[in-house]
Amino acid sequence: MKKALIIGAGPAGLTAAYELLTRTDIIPVIIEADKQVGGISKTIDYKGNKIDIGGHRFFSKSPKVIDWWLGFLPLDPRHKGETLNLRYQNNEHTQKLKQQQEPDAAVAKLEQVTNQDKVMLVRKRKSRIFYNRKFFNYPLKLNAGTLSQLGLIKTCKTAFSYLYSKVLPQKPELTLEQFFINRFGKELYNTFFKDYTEKVWGVPCNSIPASWGQQRIKNLNIGKMVAQAIKSVFISNNSIDQKGTSTSLIEQFLYPKYGPGQMWETVADAIIRLGGEIYLNSNVTGITGDKAETIISAEITDLHTGEKTIHKADYFFSTMPIKELFEITNDLPVPAQVKNTALSLEYRDFLIVGVLSGKLRVKEKSGSDITDNWIYIQDKNVKAGRLQFFHNWSPFMISNPGDMWIGVEYFCNETDEFWNLPDHELSKFAIKEIESIGILAASDVSDTTVIRVKKAYPSYYGSYSNFNIIRDYLNKLENFFPIGRNGMHRYNNSDHSMLTAIAAVDNIVSGEKDKSNIWEINTGDEYHEESGK
What we know:
By secondary structure, this protein is of the alpha/beta class. It has 3 domains: 192 residues, FAD/NAD(P)-binding domain (3-Layer(bba) Sandwich); 95 residues, no CATH class; 112 residues, Protoporphyrinogen oxidase, mitochondrial, domain 2 (Polyamine Oxidase, Chain A, domain 2, Alpha-Beta Complex), CATH 3.90.660.20. It is 35% helix and 24% strand. It contains 21 helices and 21 strands. Strand 3 and strand 4 form a beta hairpin.
């Protein structure tokens, strides 16, 4: 019986294992350093209050991925009233729900009408930007409200700046700063993009290559935003895939009832039932090959006991950070230039402070509680980069209905002084920051927790400019498949990571040696607009 050793039990690793079990006779063995599955898409339970690390919308323009998700967590049948067609692409398959007048209120009462826990909720997307002590809709809506908040002078500067960028775009477009300016103008870039982006990556936007924007933002620009704003007045896009809508402009998404980790825990259970193996609290600490093109075994270390074992396999999948991978390949003949480049790759770490409050100060104009999923903090005087409102992602993310469960996100490096502060100091700092911008009062906070995630974001600066030599080397390893965000050092969404795993299994099934199909995932618009492939 053939075996595949899979490093990492995140979306990519678990997808690869399930695909192998259902499409081949290969038995997957997953090695996961954490105590739970899900990777950065796991859900952390703190006293019954659930934390989604980073906020994970279940949204994809790939019908294959949507069907895959719904096969594990079907759409919640709670709605009553008008029929809501949730179609995607040109597929004939159509999901139909019954929608009440106030779907969010209906969700809050779900426990009273159904015992189904393993379901996907359909959630309305709402996010805003906090700038200059004011909240602006994101994506930006070029309406009277936005123009009024910006003011006449700022609005005129924004318009002239945008027109200037269209007449005289910056060429060649090499940096992320140039990418933003060419699409939005310098004024809008400085207002709504620069500070937040530099918080995330810790370097100036002119030090980040334009390829980051080309991958993450693609064809979004003011023209798209205006067209979407006009279109949304007349037509509401209720499709799952939001076909014809830029990713940054989607209006709704799917979300597991108890957070993203519920999906991956469900998948992990299925993998075990089908005969796969998952080892938690275990780390791959060595890679051995019999020649330059083939890996034969991996050394596994139990993080509790320190016991080391050797696992042989026919295929190897890796989602671990490439830098860490090359730190344990001493038994492989890796060219010095490749190894030095890999060991010089940079990452951005992530820290989130969970804040439980009885109420919020910030309200909608009507006086009701805000319904934002998340808010971007576009203010260089505030260290926090983003706020998550977990109770708005799903009402089942909180233990006591009525509580406000907030995630205050910070982007930093594990070598930073801030990262190494004691938890109580980090909590105090986060509360003080969000109190200063009017989100809540410190006196209403009842509890906090701190979570740190290393290497959450593979960076596109530093030695990344030479990444092609790493990719070429990995492609020569016949039975090795780098997949997922860190496995490929690419800022993928979870659906992209899943598709890399599916493509890798496709290659094994077909006997295809060329791995370019894996690397092509999330590199161009053709993926986002494919129909039924």
